[in-house]
Amino acid sequence: MKLLKMQRILAAMIIGLGLAGPLSAQEAAAPSRPAAVADAPSPVLFGVRVEAGDIDRVRAWLDAGVDPDFVADRIGTGLMIAAWNGNLPMMELFVARGADINRSNALGEQALMHAAWRGQVEAAKWLLARGARANAPPQQWSALHYAAFSGNRDIAQLLLDHGADINARSPNGSSVLMMAVYEGHEALARLLVGRGADRKARNEWGDGALEWAMKFKHLGIARVVSSADEFAEAAARPKAHWGEAKKSLLASEELERLLRVRDYIEARGMALDRIDRQLAAERARLARDLIAREALPPRSVTLEISARKAAPREQKAALRRSGAAAGRRP
Q1: Where in the chain is CATH 1.25.40.20?
Q2: Helix 88-96 crosses helix 121-129 at what angle (to 10 degrees)?
C-alpha cells in the first residue's frame, strides 16, 4: 500500500510539472522565425553573423523584413551584439533601420551596458550621442555599475560626464563604488570617491565598500574608502571577522524533489527531456538568487555544471567569473 501511495504521489508530481502533457505556454512561446519573413534567420545564425561582422548578410535580412530588434540566442538584439563588439558600422545599420537604442534584453541590459562592460569607449560615445540613457530606473543595474565592475575607467568617466548617477544602486542596494571595490579596481575607486561617491552606502546584506575591501584584502582601496580612524579600526579586527572570500551554489528542496521525480521517471523508462529542463531551470534560479545575494551583475558570472545524465545526483555546480571579470577575486 505504501508503494502504491508513493507511486500516486509521484505521478501527481509528474502531471503538475507538465512532464506528461503538451508543451507549456512558456515553451510554446519560445523564439521562432517571424511569420512574415520567409528567409528569416534562426536566433543562433543571426547572432553568429552579427558577431562575425557580416554586415552584408545582416543588411540583406533587414531588407527582407527581419525586425531590426530581432533577438539572437545570446547577448540580445543585433544592436546589443554590435555594441558588445564595438562594431560602429553594424550599430549604424541597425539604428538606421529602426532598432530601439534603449531596448532591454532578458537580463535587463541595454546596448550601452554591453559597451560599458566590454570597454568599448567609441561605441559608448556613439550610443550616448544618439539618445542612449546613461541611467537606469532605481534599484536596477546601470551602465556605470558595469563599467565599475569590469574596471573600465574611461567609460566610467564618460558616463559620469553624461550625467550617470554615481550613487546608483543595484537590485540589492550595492553601489557603483562597491562594484569597483569588489573587483579591486583601485584607480576607479579613487575616481569615484574623487567625484563624490558615497563611501558609506550599504546593500541589503549590510555590506559596504570598506567591508568588501577588507574581505577581499584590497587594503589600498580600504584606505581610499575610509577615514584614517575607520581604516585603523578595520585593520585591527581579526581576519575571521570579514568572512571568507568564496562562493558556492546552494541546494534547494525543490532541486531534491525534482531529482526524486527524475529517478521515478527514469526507472520506468519514460523520456527525461522535460524533467531535465525542470532541473536546469531550478539550478538557474539558484544561480540568480546567489548573484542577487552577492550583489553581482548578471553578466559577470556563468553557472558551470559538471553533469552526466546517467548520474544526475553526482552533478556539481559552481559560479565562475566570465567576461572582463575572469581571473579576478573572489
Answers
A1: 166-247
A2: 20
Q: Give CA–CA dist 94/76, Å, rounded.
A: 13
What is residue 99's three-state secondary structure?
coil
DSSP alpha helix (H) spans, 17-63: 25-28, 43-51, 55-63
- Return the closest-CA partner of residue 291 out of 141, 118, 70, 100: 141
Q: What's the grid cell of residue 287?
A: 544561480
Cα gap 26→149, rounded to integer Å: 33
Residue among 131, 129, 130, 158 at smallest CA distance from 143: 158
- pLDDT tens string, the chain, 330 residues long: the values are 444 444 444 444 443 444 444 444 443 344 433 444 657 899 999 999 999 999 999 999 999 999 999 999 889 999 999 999 999 999 999 999 999 999 999 889 999 999 999 999 999 999 999 999 999 999 999 999 999 988 999 999 999 999 999 999 998 899 999 999 988 999 999 999 999 999 999 998 888 999 989 988 899 999 999 999 998 898 888 776 666 554 444 456 666 676 767 766 766 677 777 777 777 777 666 665 655 666 677 766 555 555 555 655 555 555 455 544 443 333
- DSSP tally for the chain: helices H, then strands E: 17, 2
CATH tag, 166-247: 1.25.40.20
